[in-house]
């Protein structure tokens, strides 16, 4: 399996977009990664936009960048709640500083803004937060997936196949991808 031995954090908060959490969760597990759900610390269980719950394996205050190889940030309106957690924003910032993949889809670009990661970067997102990313100094483009250094961004659930492939490509050793 191409991601054997890799550990990926997926962030969770209320009002996450169902597909943007669960599709990467299972796709990364299928590829062999150990996937852990990291909550904001406000609760241990978070409900999606459609009421589907996810339990956190650990709180952001317990998450250490040294323990993970990548972080995935799902969209929906959860990122607006996530960015209110200094520990969650700090975890994303630390993952980026360590040069590890930081993958954000849909409204998750808000977390990149709050973590100070947007300036000078080429990014995409759901169109409604384009102005936020541009105001934070990003070059916004309308493409299914954009990779700029260790940042991977996508626009919406329809982009999930491209998004997950880009995350896996960032994590898999070249010999395995072959």
Which SSEs are present, and which pair or pack?
Blueprint: E1 7-12, H1 18-30, E2 34-39, E3 45-47, E4 53-55, E5 58-59, E6 70-73, H2 78-82, H3 86-97, E7 102-105, H4 109-114, E8 122-123, H5 130-135, E9 139-140, E10 145-148, E11 151-154, H6 160-171, H7 174-177
Parallel strand pairs: 1-2, 1-6, 2-5, 6-7, 7-11, 8-9
Antiparallel strand pairs: 3-4, 10-11
Question: What is this structure, in a nutshell?
Answer:
This protein has 178 residues and is α/β, with parallel strands linked by helices. It has helices at 18-30, 78-82, 86-97, 109-114, 130-135, 160-171, 174-177; strands spanning 7-12, 34-39, 45-47, 53-55, 58-59, 70-73, 102-105, 122-123, 139-140, 145-148, 151-154. It has a single domain, classed as Class I glutamine amidotransferase (GATase) domain (Rossmann fold), CATH 3.40.50.
């Amino acid at each position: 399996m191409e991601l054997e031995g890799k550990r990926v954090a997926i962030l969770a908060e209320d009002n996450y977009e169902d597909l943007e959490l669960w599709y990467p969760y299972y796709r990364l597990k299928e590829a062999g990664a150990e996937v852990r759900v990291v909550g904001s610390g406000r609760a241990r269980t978070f409900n999606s936009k459609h009421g589907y719950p996810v339990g956190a394996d650990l709180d952001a205050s317990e998450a250490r960048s040294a323990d993970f190889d990548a972080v995935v940030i799902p969209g929906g309106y959860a990122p607006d709640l996530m960015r209110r957690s200094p520990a969650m924003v700090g975890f994303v910032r630390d993952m980026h500083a360590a040069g590890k993949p930081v993958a954000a889809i849909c409204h998750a670009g808000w977390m990149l803004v709050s973590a100070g990661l947007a300036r000078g970067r080429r990014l995409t997102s759901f169109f409604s937060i384009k102005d936020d990313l541009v105001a934070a100094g990003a070059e916004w483009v309308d493409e299914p997936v954009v990779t700029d250094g260790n940042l991977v961004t996508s626009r919406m659930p329809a982009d999930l196949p491209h998004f997950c492939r880009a995350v896996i490509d960032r994590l898999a050793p070249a010999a395995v991808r072959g």
